[in-house]
């Protein structure tokens, strides 16, 4: 059976996705947008990859280059988990009425604490900083000696993170 154009595009797309993933871990690799076309940007990313990893710098993907790209990609995603800095800054304060990703994380931590400790109120993990979330934050603040504002500032955030990391959970 012949190698179809569709199969070729799929293989190029897979190569581009690997290169894109590697570029997220290694800024020396130019970031490319996977499109399924072996364009000049793809050739340049391959050439740079080859240079960094000691392969002949052809800009073409031979079997040695392919094997190395797959290996580096898998090693990159298989490292220790990357820390995720979710709290915007030391001066930021999250409060009732806020919504979004940070609130989801705060609520997930509060919900986890509720599961670990009988005296912690539970919250819905919905991404909306509602009165229930503010009350759960106040409970954490009270139990840890922080001012009971119901808002999550840097001090409350750090306490939540440490409580969630605690081996006594």
Using the alpha-carbon principal axes, give the shape.
elongated
What's the level 1 CATH class of the largest domain? Mainly Alpha
CATH architecture of the largest domain, please?
Orthogonal Bundle
CATH topology of the largest domain: Muramoyl-pentapeptide Carboxypeptidase, domain 1
The structural domain count equals: 2
Unreliable parts: none
Structural class call reads: mainly alpha
Rg result: 24 Å
Percent of residues in beta strands:
under 5%
Average of the residue pLDDT scores: 93
Sketch the topology as an H/E string, one letter per element: HHHHHH
Distance between the termini: 58 Å
Count the DSSP helices. Answer: 6
Q: Specify the helix fraction band.
A: 40-55%
Biggest sheet layout: none
For this entry, what is the oligomeric state of its chains?
A: single chain
Question: How would you describe this structure to a colleague?
Answer:
The protein is mostly helical. It folds into 2 domains: 73 residues, Muramoyl-pentapeptide Carboxypeptidase, domain 1, CATH 1.10.101; 65 residues, no CATH class. Helix content is 54%, strand content 0%. Helix 1 crosses helix 3. The longest helix is centred in the first third of the chain and has 21 residues. It is elongated. The chain starts with a helix and ends with a helix. The model has no long low-confidence stretch (mean pLDDT 93).
Task: Give the tags.
169 residues, Muramoyl-pentapeptide Carboxypeptidase, domain 1, elongated, 0% strand, mainly alpha, 6 helices, 2 domains
List the helices and strands and how they pair.
Blueprint lengths: L4 H21 L14 H13 L10 H15 L23 H16 L14 H14 L9 H12 L4
Helix pairs in contact: 1-3, 4-6
């Amino acid at each position: 059976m012949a190698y179809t154009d569709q199969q070729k595009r799929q293989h190029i797309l897979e190569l581009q996705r690997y290169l894109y993933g590697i570029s997220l871990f290694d800024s020396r690799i130019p970031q490319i947008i996977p499109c399924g076309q072996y364009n000049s940007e793809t050739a340049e990313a391959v050439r740079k990859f080859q240079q960094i990893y000691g392969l002949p710098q052809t800009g073409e993907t031979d079997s040695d280059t392919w094997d190395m790209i797959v290996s580096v990609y898998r090693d990159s995603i298989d490292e220790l988990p990357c820390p995720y800095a979710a709290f915007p800054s030391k001066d930021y304060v999250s409060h009732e009425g806020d919504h979004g990703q940070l609130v989801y994380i705060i609520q997930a931590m509060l919900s986890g604490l509720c599961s670990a400790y009988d005296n912690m109120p539970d919250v819905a993990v919905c991404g909306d900083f509602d009165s229930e979330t503010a009350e759960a934050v106040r409970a954490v603040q009270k139990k840890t000696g922080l001012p009971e504002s119901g808002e999550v500032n840097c001090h409350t955030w750090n306490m939540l993170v440490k409580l969630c990391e605690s081996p006594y959970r």
